[in-house]
What does this fold into?
Amino acid sequence: MRIETLAVHAGHEPDPATGAVSPPIYLSTTFARGEDLSLPGGFLYARQDNPSRRALEAALAPLEGGAVALAFASGMAASAAVFQSLLPGDHVVAPIDAYYGTAKFLREVLGPWGLTASFVDMTDLGAVERAITPRTRLIWIETPSNPALAVTDIAGVAALAHAAGARSACDNTWATPLLQRPLDLGVDIVMHATTKYLGGHTDVTGGALVLKEDGEAAVRLRGIQTVGGAVPSAFDCWLVSRGIRTLPYRMRGHCDNAEAVAEFLSSHPKVEKVHYPGLKNDPGHEVARRQMSRFGGMLSFEVRGGAPPALSVVSRAKVFTRATSLGGPESLIEHRASVEGPETRTPPGLLRCSIGLEHPDDLVEDLEQALA
Ligand SMILES: Cc1ncc(COP(=O)(O)O)c(C=O)c1O
It folds into this structure.
């Protein structure tokens, strides 16, 4: 089945008890045993497993072409589970421009616990290869990256990981399974902040892992999920499941609109640089064309003159909402260096945009007046 059909139907059987087409939200934390002490529905206790989470996981796995999916309470909880599945003394190679929470967790939480990490420019396969040590167990990919939309060659990095006897994992939050399928490119684990495009409506925090194989790694990660307890609520599972049903059509709108905004910005005299892999002159365009079906709804641009003029563009925006995050119907704009704080590597004039589902002309006109 094609992805649009999977998005609508996977994990969405009519409720066997009532025939309800929209599935109920199972709030129960515990499940009754029969007189023979068996568990008629196969569920024991909600943290361990429950019908709402199981339905979400059944929806997620086929979208990425995986064998098994695990849902978490946030994107960070999903990433953390992958790192926690490693052992003290193990080594991780991660992108220098990884989502700042990912880098912070590796450095500040798992560093003292004994995990080591090297942060490299993942657009350079040679740099990735040089960073691998005999203790490397995982290479973490995030592409397109945040906030510069650098593009990593997923198949190239996955091959380097496997040659070194390590696993590879890819944060596919920005691209979504609609535009990029890391498991098909050789990656072992896909991670999502379902908070973003999969939820799709700026109203739920969640995360997910999808694994290519239902093997040893899946068992270990399932253990971390259920015993560690960073699990999503039943309502949150239901919201993400609902979001997934319209993901393919929402992504078309996000991509159409982002392309229009990127084209507009790339010829604006007050804009120094536009970061969008869909632009033919973008350094990541060729690799992105090979591994993505379209180029996504995220872009960033650098305003000439640095932080003060960039901040005043944000202040003047009327259709764009001044907020962090991404993947909802509303367009968002933020001055990324301010969000990342004093250690940021982000250029001072850079503005990051999540391009929403408004009419593209309204978005272009809003940026036009904000830049005037
Ligand atoms: C690429 C990426 N990965 C992971 C996360 C973390 O997700 P969450 O905020 O749900 O923990 C984010 C959040 O912005 C993100 O953009």
User: Anything to note?
Assistant: Residues 74-76, 99, 101, 142, 146, 171, 173-174, 193, 195, 205, 207, 325 surround pyridoxal-5'-phosphate (CB under 6 Å). The longest strand covers residues 136-142. The first helix runs from residue 3 to 9. The chain has a mean pLDDT of 97.
